[in-house]
Write a structure and sequence with these properties.
Structural class: alpha/beta
Order of helices and strands: EHEEEEHEEEEHEEEEHEEEHHHH
CATH architecture: 3-Layer(bba) Sandwich
Distance between the termini: 55 Å
CATH topology: FAD/NAD(P)-binding domain
Largest sheet: 8 strands, mixed
Organism: Thermanaeromonas toyohensis ToBE
GO molecular function, one term: oxidoreductase activity, acting on the CH-CH group of donors, NAD or NADP as acceptor
Number of domains: 1
Protein name: Geranylgeranyl reductase family
Pfam family, one: Lycopene_cycl
Bound molecules: flavin-adenine dinucleotide
CATH class: Alpha Beta
Length: 345
């Protein structure tokens, strides 16, 4: 039977980062990724703050455009521009680069390989139609918002926002990211994120509005495109997905299982941003494993570390999300003040 020190489930930014750090010190690491190519299809609006430079070196080919600011358009018609330097990524290139870095550090990467279940110190994987049992000492759940690893060790599912997006051609390059708020975008917002000759246009919500109906994302995005006057623009790709909005589980380490990235709930509960948190939590998970294997430090050091470094902004945003949803209103003035407060704009 194959045997590893660490199995990382998911080759997104969280998993590849954790795997690279663990493999760098010589640990035997396997990454199991169900996609054929890490990062494809893209399920992201692809904006990441420039702070990511402190964590990873982004190759030029992974950058579609740089931006310096974000413009927020509120329900009462006011706008606010804030400095928000960052990158619009080509996520498929970014994710593939991080996975490649993990492989160069010594990790083994299985693509088109789906983790099905966990049992004691084993992970059951379906690869090329075969069911394999792989032995491991530690499992990293970096398998996204609907993590099977988290479920397998008894975590309740995350509360999720749902998002739908199209990438359309734009006649002239846009210089800033734009977020649009409206009472119909319950608990969320719509966005236009520029990528040179194209832009990601999407909407993400946590419910159907004050009347509590199911969100009609296609309808909301269709209306938003009409509002922009872009309903006839050529659509290059469509995507969508889920975003955890309840903040991280208080304990992201359970026995010899560690959760990072979306699997652990490391997305900003108000903005939904998760790329940077995925890399940061992946890095902390990687470092916790190094200390576990090299210094016999308990793996639960991970919980102490993320709470110290990532906890304050995330836990503050959890309170903001609760308040936002509790008092969401169709009154444009009141909703604008609420959004300015919780978005801190
Ligand atoms: C529509 C949309 C727009 C977004 N826009 C932004 C944005 O602009 N900026 C931002 O910062 N964040 C954004 N996010 C959030 C961001 O995409 C995530 O927070 C980020 O991708 C989390 O990285 P991760 O590595 O934790 O998980 P993921 O990137 O989701 O990677 C998880 C990986 O695990 C694999 N996997 C899942 N299950 C299994 C299994 N059983 N076996 C093997 N492999 C498995 C998946 O195939 C995937 O490759 C957006 C999310 C959505 C849905």
């Amino acid at each position: 039977m194959r045997e590893y020190d660490v199995i990382v489930v998911g080759a997104g930014p969280a998993g590849s980062t954790a795997a690279r750090i663990a493999a760098n010190v010589g640990l035997k690491v396997l990454i199991v990724e169900r996609k054929r190519r890490p990062g494809l299809p893209v399920q992201c609006a692809e904006y990441v703050p420039a702070l990511i430079d402190l964590e990873v070196e982004i190759p030029e080919k992974a950058v579609a455009q740089r931006v310096e600011g974000m413009e927020a358009l509120f329900p009462d018609g006011t706008t606010f521009t804030v400095r928000a330097p960052g990158y619009l990524l080509r996520r498929e290139v970014f994710d593939a680069t991080l996975a490649q870095q993990a492989v160069e550090a010594g990790a083994e990467l299985w693509t088109d390989a789906c983790a099905l279940a966990l049992a004691e110190d084993e992970v059951i994987v379906r690869k090329e139609g075969r069911i394999l049992t792989v032995k491991t000492r530690v499992v990293v759940g970096a398998d996204g918002p609907r993590s099977i690893v988290a479920r397998a060790v008894g975590y309740r599912p995350h509360r999720l926002a749902v998002a739908y997006q199209v990438e359309v051609e734009v006649p002239e390059p846009l210089r800033v990211t734009r977020v649009y708020f409206d009472p119909t975008f319950f608990g969320g917002y719509a966005w236009v994120f520029p990528k040179g000759s194209t832009a990601n246009v999407g909407v993400g919500v946590t419910g159907g509005g004050v009347d509590g109906r199911r969100p009609d994302l296609h309808g909301l995005l269709g209306k938003f495109l009409v509002f922009l006057g872009w309903e006839k623009r050529r659509i290059i790709r469509r995507t969508g997905g889920f975003i955890p909005v309840n903040g991280p589980y208080w304990r992201c380490c359970s026995g010899r299982v560690i959760l990072c990235g979306d699997a652990g709930g490391f997305t900003h509960p108000v903005t939904g941003a998760g790329i940077l948190f995925a890399v940061q939590s992946g890095e902390l998970a990687g470092r916790a494993m190094v200390r576990y294997f090299c210094e016999a430090t308990p793996l639960s050091i991970y919980d102490e570390e993320w709470r110290k470094f990532l906890g304050p902004p995330l836990l503050r945003a959890v309170r903001h999300r609760r308040r936002m949803e509790a008092v969401w209103t169709e009154d444009a003035q009141a909703l604008t003040s609420l959004l300015r407060e919780v978005w801190q704009l």
